[in-house]
Amino acid sequence: MRAIWTVVVAVVLLGLFGAVADTDAGDVGDSFAGELDGLRDCGPMRWGEARPECVRHLQQVLRARGAPMDVTGNYLRETTRYIKEFQAGRGLHQDGVLDKPTLDALAHLPDGPDRWDLRRDCVSLRQPTGEAAGSQGSCVTTLRARLAVHGIAAGRGATFDGDAAAAVRTFQQRAGLPQIGIVGPQTRLALYLQLPRPSPGQAGCTVRGCLIIIGRADTRGIASAFPDNAFVRALLAEVISAAVCARIRAMPAVHVACQAVGSYIIDTVAGALNTAARRNACLRVAVGYPPGQRAWFPLQVTPDNGPKCAAASGSSG
Length: 317
Hints:
The protein is α+β, with helices and mostly antiparallel strands and 317 residues long. It has 2 domains: 2-18 and 198-316, no CATH class; 25-190, Muramoyl-pentapeptide Carboxypeptidase, domain 1, CATH 1.10.101. The protein has 13 helices and 6 strands. It has helices at 2-14, 30-42, 52-64, 77-90, 100-106, 118-121, 138-149, 162-175, 185-190, 216-225, 230-249, 263-278, 307-313, and strands spanning 25-26, 109-110, 204-205, 209-214, 282-288, 297-304. The longest helix has 20 residues, at 230-249. Keywords: Signal. This is Peptidoglycan binding-like domain-containing protein. Residues 55-106, 138-191 form the Peptidoglycan binding-like domain.
């Protein structure tokens, strides 16, 4: 049980999550307008659709969202798979059917190359394998930009090549994810996690325990960043668990058995954060035997407005 508490504290330290942003729809150029218009004219579709031209419009739009698939005109397993992925990222019913809500969302692409968000605008990305197609387009350029944010060079261009795959594996290793070079839902979400900033009010950790004070501004930011989408919340819990475990294993002075604790992490931390944010307070987290403390804290997460909060928040809190 103590391992669970330690993982939760580490999650709070990772803290500053990227919010799932709403992106405005817009044009993507005349060369692609016909595909979007054709998809809208065709209307809803499902597995076994008998209009191959309509399915080709759909597959071209999925390719624009990064789907590494061939345009065959057949609405079968592969097309259904990427429709489900897109529905999951948008919080839609995940049945692989192109119903009206899915069609409306799919046919409205972000306005401009800097408006794409891998979490909601793209599906899984990969390089070509054998005769299978690879990903290309704005999702790939966005991927390279996100990798650069994490200090990982990923080459250039809108085609998912070997450089991009190698960079993805490097990122996955750092994040504690399987190093497969494919940008699936976990990797796309992890690319938007941010590392915590140093805090002067943080008392720190020893091999016996931790005392952490998260400043007011960071507490408010973290609390507001938790997504409402249940699928994304659950996925976020998995990604954070993996990232936490990777960082704990990299700290030789901290000996802890690491395990993923699923949505328990999100629900526990979210509740405490919301309380502190409403009170414009810091978040105080104590676990184990914190520095200077003789009492054992299995886990204590409380609002804090004391001197350490003032030090952690500075003049901007």
